[in-house]
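Researcher: Batch entry, complex prediction.
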Amino acid sequence: MNGTTNNGTRGEPAIKVEALECGYEGKVVLQDVSFAVGRGEVFFIIGGSGCGKSTLLRHMVGLNQPTKGAVSFLGRSFTEAHAGERRAMLKTFGMLFQGGALWTSLTLRENVALPLVEYTTLTRREIEEIATLKLAQVGLGGFEDYYPAEISGGMKKRAGLARALALDPEIVFFDEPSAGLDPVTSRKLDELIMHVRETFGTTIVVVSHELASIFGIADRVIMLDRGAKGIIAEGRPRELAERSRDPRVTEFLSRGEK
Amino acid sequence: MPASEESSAARASVSTEGDSCEIALSGLWQITAERPEWERLRGKQNPARVRLRVEGVGKWDSSLILFLFEVQQWCRASGAYCDTEALPEKIRMLLAQIAASHESSVPFDRSESFLTRVGLATQDAVVQAKAISHFVGECVLGARALALSPRRFRWGDCAHEMQQCGAMALPIVSLISFLVGVTLAYTGAIVLRLYGGDIYLADLIGLSMVREMGAVMTAVVLAGRTGAAFAATLGNMKANEEIDALEVLGIPAVQFLVLPRLLALAVMMPLLALYANALGIFGGMVVAYGLLSIPPAAYWVEMLTIVDLSDISTGVIKAVAFGLIVGLAGCLRGLQAERSAMGVGRAATSAVVTALVLLVVADAIFAVAFNILGW
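Model: Structure tokens for the complex:
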């Protein structure tokens, strides 16, 4: 189902991906991927292992350069942007990596404070206060002076989220947020994601194959397939599970219903 | 083997009738225990039909399947008919699986011709040269950006690295430099004594240490100690997506991680080299006094007749350049590391090798340049 675009967005979509081709070292992983994410939407990129979900995300946020196609954020082209423009656009989104990707030599407070140090002219005291607030928002109040090595995997994810939210971004990307977490912690992280959306109206893009999360919080999903090297389904997860005629889609989504 | 164990061991009994044979398997078939071998059981027989069956087999695992597969393979190779009908369904299924995977496995040829290897190595050399130039360029641009806005430079990290690569390296630098001075003195003494020029040992040691050995030996020590540590740290950060997290925030890894390390090495290396010079000269002095009975005062005065400020300057200039080389090699290899534990290890090794090669090349260039300049 390549070449589809989102309807139901209000005005300019938060993210627009057009005919994107992603790959590594000359090997094409995904081709002709097009979709749009509406503002304030919780959007999931789903699919089996190795289908290119994380690859797509890395190409969207500029960690890898797409070989073809374009990505726009909030109406501005990201792929065409020059370095200065791109840096300005990076401020508008945050990202939570699979393992949290906290900088191990910095405390949690310093981790959250770094984006503020880089992009704001706030005083040190103000920055520290914001960092403390962000950590408290994700339930890590009191752990400000801990180092990443001293906290659990779930706490690392939450601290990573606090850092991703440091600049109050308009879009937050999550790469496999449930990976390595127990079901209870995963659900708590889902609640946190919803809380962020409800509170700030943030657009959320999540890469996941965790069906409980998909059915629990996703407004809309696209499903990628390794063989098709692209999108094979797009829509609301429950509708896809019930109405899709593609056995790959129903098989993937029905496992969660049983 | 106790009787009970012997009775429960894996057994295969062969009964022959005309050109057919039947193999009955019994006992416990476990991969960690001994099992019968088909070739030994068969002996010189070449049956046209082999029937396999199990008879009172207790616990069994892959070893039973392996034995049956061996028989099946022999039958296929020799053209005999292998009858597996009497085997339980579960065993037949596993046997079919192993046979199928054996047939579908595609041999992967990793061997490459000499020309291919030469071509790939050349291509790799070009890629590496490009990567080094690109990285140096990035560092220069990053340094310019930070010079324009020094508030963004990570002074704290730089100070920490200075302590790590400077103060913490003092013991090993002391030991190596002192022993280099001692070794040079012993070697020089052999020749100088022949000509009665014992006192010139001070000149030899002073000049060698100040112009060459102080900077080179310190750089070698730091390449192994600090360069490898830089590569391992950055490689690990890359594996943990910490570098990606910086990039997504629009913070260049070069400015955030590389430049504080480079500056730390560029500052600490000349200081360590000067310290190494002193220790090396002291090592030579100890040998001169012990072996040649040259008083320390005479050694010192003689050394000052030949070593001047220009010699010390050449050593310091080299040390700054060597510090940058060690730092660049360590950081570059760390940022290029594959995202795995093995990748981090390879990056550390590669950082040391790269640094050593570049150090030798740079030293040769300095030797020629200083000669031309008359320094």
